[in-house]
């Protein structure tokens, strides 16, 4: 019940204007009362799924061909439907499409407008089709296209890392474990570590594309299609590589969305780690690099501040992505068989993550491309204490077992600390008091360049190893192809 302006109580049906608000719905017939306006808003997904207007019309055009081939539409009817769908598409594209209150979702909106344009023949389009297989198809088409765009953004970031690695391959800096200075490395080697992570993310994106590239259209609500349509031809019309072979699973499956959210979450975790390093390295305490003004902000109180907000926001979004993935997995885990309206939650998670992710990739590509590397600060962070492992390696090359050599190197560190000397200032006699294997050639150990160059095997930070990494990554970028997807679906 609701109360009108005169204080009289009326039923919700009367307050809503009887059955008028339910006109145009695809599920009418057995309902007599109007929908509660709060339920109307709660149930509607149009504000989210209207982004798939092109994919919805793409699927409808292909489905019209399928039911024409099955003899359910005459050639004239099929042509009329397709011309009408093209007109609806043009309205969405131009921004002239007028949404009606009864437009529950993008499917309802498009069918309602189609029938307004071409008459009742438009009602034949939905023969044997359900919104269950329709929305599953739309979502797969939309995501498949978006994966192609995401791959491009991701490749651009890898290219940016490769370009900066080339620029900085002669720059030596401190490598860290436990946030403690550990061993000298090339700045390029640090950059390439993230390029390799992103290469792995592209492989995950390929797997996500494969799980998305299957056609559920023609599965109906859950039991299949009774009109013997050619589903393989329908899938081919939409550019899918295969059909889904179980109609119940096909309308209920959102694993491909979960796969995408997992891919995005793992990618964003890598972007977050890169952002963490960039934030630290741009601080006065490190000073290894400086972010461009275009990717920084200032303080409203402290004029001297230059804040790395770009990379901080990336770190924050990584947490949001984890929440989106976890939340959607919770939606999936307890559903009964086939389609349930809970699955409508996939759009909010999917679209939010998808659009945010491309922004993150664009921002970080700009950050990496424009940051200024401070070669002097990187060099100044190197200290001879970081060559302690090299002392052990020196003794190993003289024939000493590594465990023994490690202990002797520790004694050298202790002696240098007691005498308050750098390693290079220790006399040969002082070193020989620890091991007679020390000879005059030990002076070669006190070179950061030599230290870095000894790591020449695959995966190392030596110049030749870094060059091999860049060659492999360049080859991967140049040969990477995610897979063709249909662009001009109306042709």
From TrEMBL:
Domain Argininosuccinate lyase C-terminal: residue ranges: 386-453
Pfam families on file: ASL_C2, Lyase_1
Feature: compositional bias, Polar residues: 1-21
Biological-process GO terms, alphabetical: L-arginine biosynthetic process via ornithine
Domain of life: Eukaryota
Region spans: Disordered: 1-28
Keywords recorded for this protein, A-Z: Lyase
Domain annotation Fumarate lyase N-terminal: ranges: 29-323
GO cellular component terms attached to this protein's record: cytosol
Gene Ontology terms, MF aspect: argininosuccinate lyase activity
Membership in a protein family: Belongs to the lyase 1 family. Argininosuccinate lyase subfamily.
Protein name as annotated: Argininosuccinate lyase isoform X1
Gene source species: Hyalella azteca
Encoding gene per record: LOC108664929
